[in-house]
Design goal:
Shape: elongated
Keywords: Membrane, Transmembrane, Transmembrane helix
Transmembrane segments: 6-28, 105-123, 129-149, 269-286, 306-328, 398-415, 510-531, 660-680
Number of helices: 31
Helix content: over 70%
Structural class: mainly alpha
């Protein structure tokens, strides 16, 4: 009854807040409508726009007004800002469109979550299940935002591919880069048109070099940066004829090929990973249905689900679900938009580390700067392009260790409390009976429980075991009456004494402390393992990024005035995995190019990347850049076939990892929560059954 009242209270509060927001919205609209500026603006709008607004116009206006309301609401303000930040990393919308796209994603996400949570709460109101639903809601929220933002990113890539084709067509007609981009932008879709017009403004500006640098700062895609850069170079230094035709058109072809490969990779991974996250989270919602089904068909399973082992198994399954979800998210964090969002996240570790007691503890655990362990951790963080420092990493490890220990210890105490409550209040079943109790038998079992509980509460404070046994027998005899036989009294007394022993044994034991310490140790190393797992996943994409570097170099080496430093700058703009070491190399390049590139080889020891850097190193003073990379053109067909094979292998490897991780929670649910307990209960019943047969006289 308390849960029902709580549920109805929550629903009532939610509806009340909705109506309050609606009233506030109406008040703000009326105040705005009464202002002079609004009336003037409305007059102009009425002259331009038709009186009858279409459904699409009403929807757009609704999104714009909703954005204003959400921005003024405390909790919704941060939620909207989070979605807007994710969109801004992959697209440079104008303000009007940015608000519309932000509210689209916000309404879709909140609507799906609200309907899903409401249905689940109406189906099952178990407190543990509700706690799992809350956590699953937070998890699904991030997944839905990633899904909708990813759609925007994919749409931009596909539009860019068509834009390149149109630029190629109009370049054949005009022979001028800026005019071709302008004409192509006019026939492109909205997102691509925005960027085409911006690049046209860059190329026609009074100082295009500065405008190009400004565009590099806000361009949401590395492909757009490369397109703007190659267009600027051709406009400044002119196009020239090469073996395959125009240098500019050849560069566009290579860039279009990279975009198409990226689209194919995303589509293939989306197809292979589709549903895996849902499959990993599905066991959260199926624990209760499985429990209800098992209890309905196998009544003896009540002891498992209501006991300590059942509760602990449920917690283990929940931990497996969360871990699987996190691993699946890590496998999909190698895209450019997600990298940028990760790098710009709020660094809460820095704020905690600024607290002196926390810094004192962390500094005692961090390895020394000149030790082997410090070098390994530094290399690991560099390989994953992690925004963490070693101190922040150790802070995460310490906090997760403490949280794991406290959560497990609290869970142990709660499990003991549940076990005691079951002993005192659960119906006392006859061990010689199988199957589900009839209503009469259940009432009798509850009466026995009430009788036993009175005796237990009366004698539990007696420290002497012998005297306690005498008190139990006396109390049982008094309740049984004069007609009770000696066997019945002994049997009832043994049952009460067994319950007393069970209550006495329900305390926090030393081996439970050992388990808690073990789990805390796992929690201490878990952030390190997650970074190592991320490094392994990123290694799969390293070869792909090196191949993309080769495409960029093949485009640039045809330009006579290009230098090694310029190529490194282009590589840094196009990089995701190798971005951080390339940034360090560029900062140190003016102090000595060869020394900076030698350090780059040490910071990024991936063999194919090192070979590319060695070629650039040779091209610093000894030979021209085109000669250092002459095989990129002569063996282009071979490299294309090799790259296709590598793409297929990387995608298949990721898919196999994803399927294995995604189905682990389902296997854990079926076997740990149903199959193994069912076998165990069946064996116990069979043992009891054979014992009864052997005791038959």
């Amino acid at each position: 009854m308390n849960l029902n009242v709580l549920l109805y209270t929550i629903i009532g509060i939610s509806l009340g807040l909705f109506f309050v927001l609606l009233i506030v919205f109406q008040i703000l609209r009326r105040r705005q409508g009464g202002s002079a500026a609004y009336q003037v603006n409305k007059g102009y709008t009425d002259l331009i726009e038709p009186k009858q607004k279409t459904t699409r116009q009403r929807l757009v206006n609704f999104f714009q007004k909703s954005y204003v309301i959400f921005s003024r609401t405390p909790l919704l303000e941060s939620y909207t800002a989070k979605i807007r930040k994710r969109l801004s990393t992959i697209h440079s919308y104008d303000e009007f469109t940015m608000r519309k796209e932000t509210m689209k994603i916000a309404y879709l996400t909140l609507g799906i979550l609200f309907v899903g949570v409401l249905l689940l709460v109406l189906i099952n109101r178990d407190p543990v299940f509700l706690a799992m639903v809350v956590v699953a809601t937070v998890v699904l929220n991030g997944m839905l935002i990633d899904t909708f933002v990813g759609r925007v990113e994919d749409r931009l890539l596909k539009q860019l591919s068509h834009l390149m084709t149109d630029v190629r067509h109009y370049y054949h007609q005009h022979g001028m880069v800026e005019e071709a981009i302008y004409e192509a932008g006019q026939v492109s879709k909205y997102e691509a048109q925005l960027h085409a017009e911006r690049i046209y403004e860059v190329l026609t500006a009074n100082d295009p070099q500065d405008e190009l640098e400004n565009y590099y700062e806000v361009a949401p895609s590395r492909f757009l940066k490369a397109f703007a850069g190659i267009s600027f170079l051709v406009k400044e230094y002119g196009d020239k004829k090469i073996n395959n035709g125009s240098m500019y058109l050849n560069g566009l072809s290579r860039l279009t090929q990279e975009i198409n490969l990226e689209i194919l990779r995303r589509d293939r991974l989306r197809y292979l990973f589709s549903g895996l996250t849902i499959i990993a989270l599905a066991p959260v919602f199926f624990t209760k249905p499985i429990e209800v089904w098992a209890r309905g068909h196998f009544p003896s399973m009540d002891d498992f689900y209501a006991g300590k082992i059942g509760f602990f198994t449920k917690m283990v399954i929940f931990a497996v679900i969360l871990l699987s979800y996190v691993l699946l998210r890590k496998m999909q964090e190698n895209d450019e938009g997600k990298y940028a969002a990760k790098a710009n996240r709020i660094k809460w570790e820095q704020r905690v580390y600024e607290w002196k007691p926390a810094a004192w503890v962390v500094d005692r655990l961090v390895p020394g700067q000149h030790t082997k362990q410090h070098f390994k951790l530094t290399r690991l963080l560099k390989d994953t392009s992690s925004p963490l420092t070693i101190e922040w990493l150790y802070l995460q490890r310490i906090l997760l260790c403490l949280a794991s220990f406290l959560i497990l210890v609290s869970t142990m105490f709660y499990i003991h409390h549940v076990a005691k409550q079951n002993v005192l209040y659960a119906p006392t079943k006859n061990t010689t009976l199988f199957g589900q109790l009839s209503p009469e038998e259940e009432k009798k079992a509850e009466a026995i429980t009430v009788s036993d509980r009175k005796i237990i509460l009366a004698v539990k404070d007696e420290p002497d075991p012998k005297k306690r046994e005498e008190l139990v027998r006396a109390a049982v005899k008094a309740q049984a009456g004069r007609d009770a036989t000696k066997d019945v009294i002994n049997k009832d007394a043994a049952r009460v004494l067994e319950k007393l022993d069970t209550l006495e044994n329900e305390y926090f034991k030393w081996w439970e402390l050992v388990i808690a310490v073990g789990v805390a140790t796992v929690g201490y190393y878990l952030p390190l393992w997650m970074i190592e797992f991320r490094r392994r996943m990123r290694e799969m994409d390293m070869q792909n990024e090196v191949d993309q570097f080769h495409t960029i170099i093949a485009m640039l080496c045809e330009i006579e005035r290009i230098s090694v430093e310029n190529i490194l700058e282009w590589m840094e703009r196009f990089a995701v995995v190798f971005r951080q070491p390339l940034q360090i190399c560029l900062m140190d390049y003016e102090a000595g190019g060869e020394k900076a590139m030698e350090q780059l080889k040490e910071d990024a020891p991936f063999v194919p990347f090192v070979r590319t850097v060695e070629r650039l190193l040779v091209a610093v003073e000894k030979i021209p850049i085109r000669q250092a990379f002459d095989d990129l053109e002569t063996e282009r067909v071979y490299y294309q076939e090799q790259r296709k094979e590598q793409y297929e292998r990387i995608i298949n490897e990721k898919a196999s990892w994803g399927k294995m991780i995604g189905f682990v929670p389902m296997y854990a649910l079926v076997f740990l929560y149903l199959v193994i307990p069912l076998i165990w209960m069946s064996m116990n019943q069979m043992s009891t059954y054979f014992t009864q047969i052997t005791t038959i006289q």
